[in-house]
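In the design runs reported in the main text, the only information available to the sequence generator was the tokenized backbone. The following block is the verbatim input for one such run; it is reproduced so that readers can re-run the procedure and compare outputs position by position.
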């Protein structure tokens, strides 16, 4: 059953029950798949419930994330994000400024309005040339081992989720449910733990345009976003206004990225979003945590228009190698 998660200013983001896709008849699957494709086509965003990742698993990774960000600043700084090719490591507030602006403007933006956030990017753990930046094992504490085990376990669950949602898109497009399987097998994805520190309302009042994360689109095929109950995520409506994407417990917000839009000849939308001051005003805002899992087609895959998405034979984009596209985009951001 599909209802509205968000319905405002011509932005309709469906709340879709994913269970019938995971375990239903062919007709059930097709119905869910159609809703998913329509959501990506119209809004670029959907919410999924009964998605198959347990609330306990999600809660546990949120707990690990909170422990990570509690580490002393100098310890986190030693784990710094080190290259676009690797896209792994820790980023302090204000270093990254995702924006639609030209590369030259990024520095200016960074100085005027640093994002109020910090993040840790974690990639697949089997590429020795691009190591993950794990907190070191020190003394008696077993926590670093636990942190690595939990986050990588979650990484694998999200990798499977990516395969399933891509499979639903294939069913919705009528190209056969395994069409994308050869593109999701490597797991060239990034798990990003995000922490938006507690901040007083004054900061938003004194600085016009102050946000927790600037408006941007995501780069890859899709993003699985797990948000806590704090609120502040907004999605751009077809009229160009930002609308609250209110947290709904135990759901995943899934949005299509720029490479998905390109791959589908813009049949699917990659929609701008941002994180702002929470909607319920108080003098102090508590910390907000979110977990974004950025999914990408295998980095070695050639991305060219998906069959059936090229209207009247007009293919808008040249084929491109997935990994090259992503490195280009990341290089322009950091
Ligand atoms: O924290 C959020 O809710 C959104 C994060 C996001 O959009 C991103 O990291 O790309
Ligand atoms: Fe995003």
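Verbatim output:
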């Amino acid at each position: 059953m599909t209802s509205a998660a968000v319905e405002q200013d011509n932005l309709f983001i469906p709340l879709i029950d994913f269970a019938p896709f995971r375990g239903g008849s062919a007709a059930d699957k097709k119905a869910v798949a159609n809703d998913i494709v329509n959501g990506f086509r119209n809004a670029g965003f959907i919410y999924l419930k009964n998605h198959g990742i347990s609330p306990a698993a999600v809660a546990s990774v949120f707990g690990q994330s909170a422990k990570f960000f509690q580490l002393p600043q100098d310890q986190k700084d030693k784990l710094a994000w080190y290259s676009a090719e690797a896209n792994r490591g820790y980023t302090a507030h204000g270093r990254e400024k995702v924006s639609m602006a030209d590369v030259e403007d990024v520095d200016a933006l960074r100085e005027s309005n640093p994002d109020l956030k910090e993040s840790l990017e974690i990639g697949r753990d089997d590429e020795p040339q691009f190591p993950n930046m794990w907190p070191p094992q020190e003394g008696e504490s077993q926590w670093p081992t636990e942190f690595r085990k939990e986050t990588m376990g979650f990484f694998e669950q999200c990798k499977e989720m990516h395969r399933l949602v891509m499979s639903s898109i294939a069913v919705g497009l009528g190209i056969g449910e395994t069409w994308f399987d050869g593109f999701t097998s490597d797991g060239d994805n990034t798990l990003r733990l995000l922490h938006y520190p507690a901040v007083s309302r004054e900061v938003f009042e004194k600085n016009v345009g102050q946000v927790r994360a600037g408006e941007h689109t995501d780069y890859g095929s899709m993003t699985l976003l797990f948000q806590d109950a704090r609120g502040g995520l907004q999605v751009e409506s077809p009229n160009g206004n930002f609308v609250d994407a209110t947290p709904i417990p135990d759901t995943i917000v899934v949005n299509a990225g720029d490479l998905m839009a390109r791959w589908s000849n813009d049949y699917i939308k990659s929609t701008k979003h941002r994180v702002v001051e929470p909607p319920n005003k108080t003098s102090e805002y508590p910390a907000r945590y979110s977990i974004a899992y950025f999914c990408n087609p295998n980095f070695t895959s050639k991305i060219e228009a998906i069959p059936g998405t090229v209207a009247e034979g007009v293919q808008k984009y040249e084929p491109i190698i997935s990994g090259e596209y992503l490195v280009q985009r990341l290089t322009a951001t950091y």
